[in-house]
Amino acid sequence: MKYVFAIMFGLFFVSANAQEINKKLEDQIKHKQIMLNECSREGLVEFPEFKASYDANYENYKVDSASVPQLTKLMKDKKIKVVLGTWCGDSKFQVPNFLKVTDAIKVDEKHVSFVAVDGAKKAENGLIDGLDIQRVPTFIITDKKGKEIGRIIEHPKKSLELDLIDILSAKK
């Protein structure tokens, strides 16, 4: 009986601390439905406000195929946190393009995480505390230990592919 109680208590404890993925709410600044906090790729691309432009932008983006072999090698053991706003025009444009690049270089989905912010560029539960998010989207690239290597803020300087290559091949 103690064993069953411990398992039940353990499950309750885990679920009590689990964060809601793909949370939707009314944003007080944007006055529209947004996603907030951690999101899955599926939840994000199916969210009506985001999907309206996602499909066309993903479809129309042409990945620089010459960069694919180098990026594939450079992205090994790297992770990317994407901080975005489902309400933000730049996020609606750049995130689909970014996902097309990560699909082309076959980045494992567990190496890409998404955090949606509100109109004040905030998330709950300390999800982006210390990340100094000023503009969205912000793509934060980290090494396997979680140390930030670099970031692309709002839009790339050259292209997503070339900016990623510059970040990943920079000597620190």
From TrEMBL:
Extract the SUPFAM superfamilies matched here: Thioredoxin-like
Q: Which Pfam families match?
A: Thioredoxin_9
Q: Which domain of life is it from?
A: Bacteria
| Signal peptide from the UniProt entry | 1-18
**Keyword terms of this UniProt record:** Signal
Q: What is this protein called?
A: Thioredoxin
Q: What is the lineage of its organism?
A: Bacteria, Pseudomonadati, Bacteroidota, Sphingobacteriia, Sphingobacteriales
